[in-house]
Amino acid sequence: MRIISGKYKAKKLKTLKTNDTRPTSDKVRGSIFSMLGEIDGAVLDLFGGTGSLSVEALSRGAESAMIIDGADDAVRLIRENTSFVEEELEIYRNDFRRALKAMAKRDKSFDLIFLDPPYRKKLVDQSLHKIKELKLLNPNGRIVVETSKDEKVNIEGFTCVKEHTYGTIKVQLLIEDKE
Questions:
Q1: Whole-model pTM?
Q2: 106 is in which domain, residue-wise?
Q3: What is the pLDDT of residues 37-63, one digit of tens each?
Q4: Is the backbone of residue 166 left (phi > 0), alpha (psi -120 to 50) or beta?
Q5: Which of 30, 68, 74, 152 could covalently link to 99 via disulfide, CB atoms 3.0 to 4.6 Å apart?
Q6: Burial of 20 per CB tally in 10 Å (0-12, 13-18, 19+)
Q7: Which residues of 66-85 are buried (b: 16+ CB within 10 A; e: fewer)?
Q8: In-domain check, residue 117
Q9: What is the domain-level CATH number for residue 95?
């Protein structure tokens, strides 16, 4: 796996040798960033895995990133995969619910949020609900959701502006509904 474009183009990233983490392929990651276009501001990667989505965003112009993952081995890998990053970067091992609450207490908000949790566990629904409730998405912010293609996601409070399927993977680009 490698960084596709930008400042860190061609940097190689490691992956875990377990089935617990499912890294976004170079092809899908490239498609996600084509969908997104210009990248800037603060990024949150709520289910960090390898950190590849955040590193790609930083490589393409994001100013800072926060990566959260609940697994010790994933956090170790993320630290290794981001050792060369020059931008502001925070990495935490935490349950996503507690992490979101902690961000709200710190008045954190984000311009781009990646949600790529384990499939079919309704974690996207829970995450979207908390992100909206805690006001963690900046105005004009975007959320990228990656799920299995047959997974139903409740996007109440958000609008899907783009959706693509790549084999067994579905990627949605969401914006928050204005109240």
A1: 0.94
A2: 31-176
A3: 999 999 999 999 999 999 999 999 999
A4: beta
A5: 68
A6: exposed
A7: bbbbbbeebbebbeebbeeb
A8: yes
A9: 3.40.50.150
